[in-house]
Amino acid sequence: MPITILGIESSCDDTSAAILSDKTVLSNVTASQEVHQKYGGVVPELASRAHQSNIVPVVDRALKEADVEMKDLDAIAYTLGPGLVGSLMVGSSFAKGLSLSLNIPLLEVHHMKAHVMAHFIEEPETSNPELPFLCLTVSGGHTQLVIVHSHKHFEVIGETIDDAVGEAFDKSAKIIGLPYPGGPLIDQYAKLGDPESFTFAKPKVPDLQFSFSGFKTSVLYTVRDRVKENPNFLEQQRDNLCASIQRTLVEMLMEKVRLAQKQTGITRIALAGGVSANSELRTSVRKLQEEGCEVYIPKFEYCTDNAAMIAVQGYHQFQEKQWGSLSSAPSARLRIE
Q: Which CATH superfamily is domain 4-118+302-319 in?
């Protein structure tokens, strides 16, 4: 019999619920929070309150779209961390209460592992990477290079020493006057600009580590100095700035991916995390096929935070009876061990 799992994701500002039958998605519902736009970033307290309002209707809709009743569920998978503690607590408390009332197993899922395991959601005309594979995981809070040996064994071989690339996109967007979330807007306007218009600093860090703080400072100083010379600089150069920012960040990522591929010898390359929705990054990763690599890029709906990825990782943990505990506390900085 197929295993039916309810996945719950609440790590940041998206409340999501999904129903999976084994590794097939029956529904995947997400409620986003627009309240943060006027603040230029996610406000943790407002995020947790919005989760409290959203979680019951989102789960209800996911069940109805999947045509599944509560009694049909075999387990509940939820995000244990990392993320915003207040947001995580909403999903954690709901999952624990429902698990207890239905007397079914609870599955604690690592958010970043789930992003990677989204590649194992079964979709028509979509192939899954063979193990092991090398994954670039990029989001608002993380930038990592990971060797995926199995759903349990993730080997982090490189990560950022300061900021994440998603945060670099959003902060750069804020510097040039774009509203939050700015990353998708940079991608949109970059298509209209010249990526060679501006040169920004690319911090040199050893081996497979990343650093983006110096890049953001470079964007800030460039904008500051140009606006002094021309008060209309931002309006006149918006598209070129976006194109140059995006080009630089994608180049920084791809330099490390190529280095990791060379060092490990692994030719199966995957992309995961919210920034994997960026069009130039997707194009750049696809070009690795010309260098003899197999490339795996998730569908857009599985790039950003979603519960389907939580449920598919939960499915693998269910197979090995890796049950969660009612006493487990959400962790804002849960690391991949």
A: ATPase, nucleotide binding domain (3.30.420.40)
Q: What is the mean pLDDT of each run of 10 residues along the chain (337 residues)?
A: 97 96 98 76 88 97 98 98 97 98 98 96 90 96 96 96 96 95 96 98 95 97 98 98 98 98 98 96 98 95 96 97 96 88
Domain with CATH 3.30.420.40 in the chain: 4-118+302-319, 127-298
Beta-bridge mates of residue 135 = 146, 270
Cα 275 to Cα 137: distance, rounded to the nearest angstrom: 8
Assess contact for 66 and 315: CB atoms under 8 A.
no
Q: How far apart are CA 163 and CA 151, in angstroms?
A: 26
SS3 state of residue 292: coil
**CATH node for 127-298:** 3.30.420.40
CA distance linking residue 175 with residue 171, whole number of Å: 6
Which token pair is 43? 């406000």
Residue 115: other Cβ atoms inside 10 A: 30
Distance of alpha carbon 176 from alpha carbon 53, whole angstroms: 33
